[in-house]
Every structure is written in C-alpha cells, then in structure tokens.
Design brief:
Length: 355
C-alpha cells in the first residue's frame, strides 16, 4: 500500500510540472505574438510615415491648385495613405505603370483634373461619377476597354481624352449627359462608327476620331451644331453624308487616308471651312490647282488636297454629271447632285466612255 501511494504522488507531481510548463509555454508564445504584432504595428506605422513623406514630396501648388505630380516612377497601385491629402485638385500621374484607378478616388471631392495618361490602366471605376467638380479626364494610352455609364454624372466635365486604348470601341449612351463637354479625343481605337452619345453632345467643339475603323458617318451628323474641328484621318470611309454640308460651324476637317471616291458637291458652299484635307483617297477625278503667282499671300493656304482642291473637284464633278446627262438626253437636275445621284451615275459611268 505504501508503494502505491508513492507512485500516485509521483504521477501527480509530474502532471503538475507539465501543466506548469505548458502554461508557461503558452504565455511565452502569447508574449511573442504580442511582440510581433507590436513590431508589425510599429513597422506599418513607420511604412505609412515613409509613404506619406514620399507623397508629400510629390505635392505642389501651381496656379492656385494643389497638384499631385508623379512621373516615370514605379507606382502600380496608389496607397490608401493618399486619402490624407483630400485637398488635391489635380492628379498628374504619367508613365508610372499604374494598373488601377483606386476606388477611393471618390474621396477627392475637389479634383478638377485627373491626368493618368500613358499607364497600364484597364478600367475606369464607377466611383468616377462622384467627382462632381471634375473638368478634365485624361486616360489616353492605357488599356481601357469599357467606359462606365457613371461617367455621365460628371456634369462639369469639359475635356475627355481616351486616345490609344487599343480595344475601346463603344461609349455608353450616358456620355450624352455631359452638357459641358467640348473636347473629345477617341483617336487610335477600334470604333467603326461615331457613337450616338457623341452626336448628342450639345457643346462638343473638337472631335478626334483619327486612326479608328470608321466605315461611315451618321446621316444626322449636322446635329453637331457647335463642332468646329473634326479629325477623321486613317479610317475606312468610302462616302460622306450630304448633311455634312450643313455643319456651318465646321472650320477644320481632316479626311486624309480614307477610301473616299467622291466629295459631295454641296461642300463647295461651306464657306466657314478654312482647312480641309482629302489627301491619300482614291477619288474618282484628278484635279490640278492652277499655278499660284510667286510670293502670293495665298501660298501657305494652297494645300494641294485642301479647300481650293475641294472647290475645283466639286465643279469638275458637276461638269462630268452634266456631260453624262447631255449624252443620254436626260434633263439636268434642278438642285445639286446628291450621293444618291453619285451612285446612279457611277453605274452609268461604267457603261460610258470617259470624257
């Protein structure tokens, strides 16, 4: 009996020792975890301070605006610490490899200019629609494929540049809600037509859709009443709608490197059109400009495929049509020939010797 008591006491002692050791181990482990957490918090706070200090170096004041300017550095994402600068009015972030526009961009209610050109951005977040003071959104030469309808909520937006985004080929109808937008750059994308939302923009004055895949222009293009500059070079246009002649505000029209066969004759009456370029199109007729006097003040304006070329081309086209009508004893139309007549006389010309 005595031996049993000793054995039982020994087991109890060992159990007590192990329980003490286990408890101490757990306490030590918790201390280590707390210490690591504390170090992590210190490190995190220290990193935040470093980031804030680095961002602070990028903030400057120019023309009365608080601007964040970063160029040619590596910032694939923007740190959350940026929200400590709510007074920012402009972001100028160029060639920094930025891949996303942070959703917390909506926190910057004072933003007027958002310039994120030449990065690797793939999408524009819906939160962009909360920037009610935004006037300029510049996201050219990125990888944006779609535009959120919420952008139409930026009612003070005046300038939108989306050039060179590779696969971009559509705009949401909500874009037409941008009542102050006067400058739109959609060049070097994949558009096959001018979006209806663009035609509806009431204040649009400057449009660049060069380097797309436009195959035709909308018949109601004359609804763009305030448009004075339109760049349509390097597309696939074969014809122009007659209603382009009613764009009375149009001052500059570039149509080089398309597939145009004819010029609507009524364009001759577009007196406000000061610069036009039809170079590198397979036009039906050859027109040569008369030699200008040496040292003429008009030398600089005599673009070979420009305004005077257009006028002479329209006159030549009328002569050809009249001659064809006379040859076939058909009365001349009372008004200027239209694109419909062009189609008819094209078939006629194929069966008639050249004049």
């Amino acid at each position: 009996m005595t031996g049993v008591s000793v054995c039982s006491g020994t087991v109890s002692s060992i159990k007590s020792i192990w329980e003490t050791r286990i408890k101490k181990t757990k306490e030590d482990l918790k201390k280590q975890q707390d210490l690591k957490a504390g170090v992590g918090r210190v490190r995190h706070n220290w990193e935040d301070r470093i980031i804030l200090a680095k961002l602070k170096e990028k903030v400057l004041i120019a023309d009365g605006r608080v601007i964040l300017r970063i160029e040619q550095e590596e910032w694939k994402t923007l740190p959350r610490a940026l929200v400590h600068f709510p007074q920012l009015m402009e972001w100028q972030l160029h060639r920094i490899g930025l891949q996303t526009i942070p959703h917390f961009v909506s926190s910057f209610e004072n933003l007027i200019v958002l310039d994120l050109s030449r990065n690797s951005i793939t999408e524009i977040p819906q939160e962009i629609g909360k920037l009610m003071k935004l006037r300029e959104l510049l996201v050219s030469y990125n990888r944006v494929q779609t535009i959120p309808g919420e952008l139409g909520c930026c009612q003070n937006l005046e300038k939108l540049e989306l050039a060179g985004n590779r696969d971009l080929d559509q705009l949401p109808l909500e874009i037409s809600n941008l009542r102050k937008l006067y400058h739109l750059d959609l060049s070097l994308n994949q558009f096959t037509e001018i979006p209806e939302s663009v035609v509806r923009l009431p204040a649009l004055q400057w449009l660049d859709m060069g380097g797309n895949r436009l195959q035709s222009l909308p018949h109601d293009i004359h609804r763009m009443e305030k448009l004075h500059t339109m760049w349509l070079q390097r597309n696939e246009l074969e014809t122009l709608p007659d209603n382009i002649c009613y764009m009375q505000s149009l001052d500059t029209l570039v149509l080089s490197n398309n597939k145009l066969h004819n010029i609507p004759s009524m364009m001759e009456d577009m007196n406000n059109l000061r610069f036009v370029n039809f170079r590198d199109n397979p036009l039906t007729y050859e027109v040569k400009l008369p030699t200008a006097p040496q040292n003429s003040e008009e030398d600089e304006d005599r673009e070979m495929f420009g305004r005077e070329f257009m006028r002479l081309y329209c006159q030549e086209a009328r002569k050809r049509v009249t001659a064809m009508l006379d040859m076939h004893n058909i009365n001349s139309p009372q008004s200027n020939y239209t694109s419909e007549l062009n189609v008819n006389f094209k078939a006629l010309a194929e069966s008639t010797p050249s004049l």
